[in-house]
Amino acid sequence: MQDVKNVVVHNLSPGMVTTDLLMSGATTKQAKFFINVLAEPADVVAECLVPKIRSIAASGSTKPTYLRFLTGVKAYSQIFSRIAFGARRNRYILED
């Protein structure tokens, strides 16, 4: 592995994406709550992350990069908005 050059490992965190796999697990009240509050469709996540990924490749950066779509601040603010104002209720799944 010492002969490998110009390889950089990056970390990509898309958060919760509304896929068939995620939606199939929406069987509990808690799961429905978090999917409605935190999940986004794949095209929304891709619209945000793809330009960032391309800019890293284009820049030739040799530093590892951590790209996040759903940051901690964003997650907490969406949870707070839901609890305080009812935002994102029944967004994807009807909640009990």
UniProtKB/TrEMBL annotation:
InterPro entries: Chl_b_Red. It comes from the Eukaryota. PANTHER family: CHLOROPHYLL(IDE) B REDUCTASE NOL, CHLOROPLASTIC, NON-SPECIFIC LIPID TRANSFER PROTEIN-RELATED. It comes from Citrus sinensis. This is Chlorophyll(Ide) b reductase NOL, chloroplastic.
